[in-house]
Structure formats: structure tokens, C-alpha cells
């Protein structure tokens, strides 16, 4: 499969100045950035506004999981902010996902802008098989649970999912190549895996069929972040 995957650098900071410093360092090497709950709850919408002014694309990772009407209101704000993608939990159900997509399209049409993509999070990469059993009493494998959730997303009209690298091949085999697959849990062979459990290297993830690789610590904690990012990009290009 000839995939032209891109990296999304996770701005895992609680200070916008530190985030800006990294974006400046990476320069033209990286276009996409993820703003998650830590940075957003500290700096708010201004964190998105600053990145947009810097010409970057924003993946807003707040993982909405609420009643459809509440999620709809949050999605309207995502359109107002101009983010390119946002996340919601697939476990919120088909109705919540469908309403989020409809809201994004309707609000974007009203604003005469491109709608942001609603990306459904399947299962957090920090979960292991033992965690699933101990915490929820569920005996199914992560792969089977992810398969069910992706099926739910597709049925609801979703165009993209977040899944661990270990589930990418299964998703491609069962749901084809049109579904956008964004994967965290990517760790270069020269980087520590941290609290991620279901991981692959960037090369392996792209070969499995990932469209975007979300990478944080291997870049932001590197002594030379730009060198680390470019090393990962070269690894992806070599697949």
C-alpha cells in the first residue's frame, strides 16, 4: 500500500510559550500539531488561534463524550476555531457521532469553510489486555473491541478513527483504505515507549496503513527536536 503518511506533533505542554518555541524550532518540517486537554485547559482557544496564525493545521484532541446535544455545541465551537480535525469517543455511540458530523457540516456550510473531520477514538493505547479484564471485566481482545467500535463509526457515517498501531492492519482488512486512520502509540526504535502499550515503530505503522502518526515525547523530549522529527519523517518516506 502506497501511503503518504504525515506526522502530527503532540504539543504536550501546559504553557503556550513552550509550545510556540517547539513550533518555531520545527519550522517547515511539520505542518500538523495536536492540542490536547492539558494545553487547552491551561491556555484555552488562544492556543488554537496562535497555531492557525503560524500557518499550522490543528488536530484538537479533547475526546468529546457526552449527550449528542452537548457534543453538537462543542463541535460548533470547533468550526468557529477553524481546526482541521477534532476527536470524540466512539463509545459515545452512533447517534452522538452522527450528530457531531452533521453539526460540523452544517456549521461549516453556514460559515462557508471546510468542515473539520470528526475523528472517533476507539481504545486508548495505554490499555493492555489485562487492564481491559481487570477494569471492565471484559474478556475480549483489544482488537475485537476496536473492530466493533470502528464498525459503529462507519455505520454512523464517520470518516476517521484513532487506533493503536496494532489494530491498523485489522482496520484496513475489514473497512478498506478510505477510512482515515490516525495512530498514537508510535515509538521509534531509539525512543522509550513510556506508558504506551500497543506500539509500533513509525515505519511499521505506515506499512500497516496509517495515515497520520501522532508523536509527542520522542520529539519534544529530544535534545534536538528538529533532528528527531526529520529522522522520523525520513523513516516514513523510506517505507
Features:
single chain, 239 residues, alpha/beta, TIM Barrel, 8-stranded parallel barrel, 11 helices
CATH topology: TIM Barrel
Number-wise, the strands total 8
Shape: globular
CATH class: Alpha Beta
Please report which band the strand proportion falls in: under 5%, 5-15%, 15-25%, 25-35%, 35-45% or over 45%.
15-25%
According to CATH, the homologous superfamily is Aldolase class I
- Give, in order, the helices and strands: EHEHHEHEHEHHEHEHEHH
Poorly predicted tracts of residues: none
Give the fraction of residues assigned to helices: 40-55%
Describe this structure as you would to a colleague.
Helix content is 47%, strand content 16%. By secondary structure, it is of the alpha/beta class. It has one domain (6-237): TIM Barrel (Alpha-Beta Barrel), CATH 3.20.20. An 8-stranded parallel β-barrel has the order 1-2-3-4-5-6-7-8, surrounded by 7 helices. Helix 4 links the parallel strand 3 and strand 4. Helix 4 packs parallel to helix 5 and helix 7 crosses helix 8. The model has no long low-confidence stretch (mean pLDDT 92).
Amino acid at each position: 500500500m502506497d501511503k503518504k503518511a504525515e506526522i502530527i506533533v503532540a504539543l504536550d505542554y501546559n504553557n503556550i510559550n513552550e509550545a510556540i518555541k517547539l513550533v518555531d524550532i520545527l519550522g517547515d518540517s511539520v505542518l500538523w500539531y495536536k492540542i490536547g486537554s492539558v494545553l487547552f485547559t491551561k491556555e484555552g482557544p488562544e492556543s488554537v488561534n496562535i497555531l492557525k496564525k503560524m500557518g499550522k493545521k490543528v488536530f484538537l484532541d479533547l475526546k468529546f463524550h457526552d449527550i449528542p446535544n452537548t457534543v453538537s455545541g462543542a463541535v460548533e465551537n470547533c468550526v468557529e476555531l477553524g481546526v482541521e480535525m477534532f476527536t470524540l469517543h466512539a463509545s459515545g455511540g452512533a447517534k452522538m457521532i452522527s450528530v457531531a458530523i452533521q453539526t460540523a457540516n452544517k456549521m461549516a456550510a453556514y460559515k462557508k469553510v471546510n468542515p473539520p473531520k470528526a475523528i472517533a477514538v476507539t481504545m486508548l493505547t495505554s490499555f493492555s489486555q489485562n487492564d481491559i479484564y481487570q477494569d471492565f471485566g471484559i474478556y475480549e481482545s483489544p482488537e475485537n473491541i476496536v473492530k466493533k467500535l470502528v464498525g459503529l463509526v462507519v455505520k454512523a457515517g464517520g470518516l476517521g478513527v484513532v487506533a493503536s498501531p496494532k489494530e491498523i492492519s485489522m482496520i484496513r482488512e475489514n473497512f478498506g483504505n478510505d477510512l482515515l486512520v490516525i495512530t498514537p502509540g508510535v515509538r521509534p526504535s531509539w525512543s522509550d515507549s513510556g506508558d504506551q502499550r500497543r506500539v509500533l515503530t513509525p515505519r511499521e505503522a505506515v506499512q500497516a496503513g496509517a495515515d497520520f502518526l501522532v508523536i509527542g515525547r520522542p520529539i519534544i523530549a529530544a535534545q534536538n527536536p528538529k533532528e528527531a522529527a526529520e529522522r522520523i519523517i525520513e523513516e516514513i518516506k523510506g517505507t
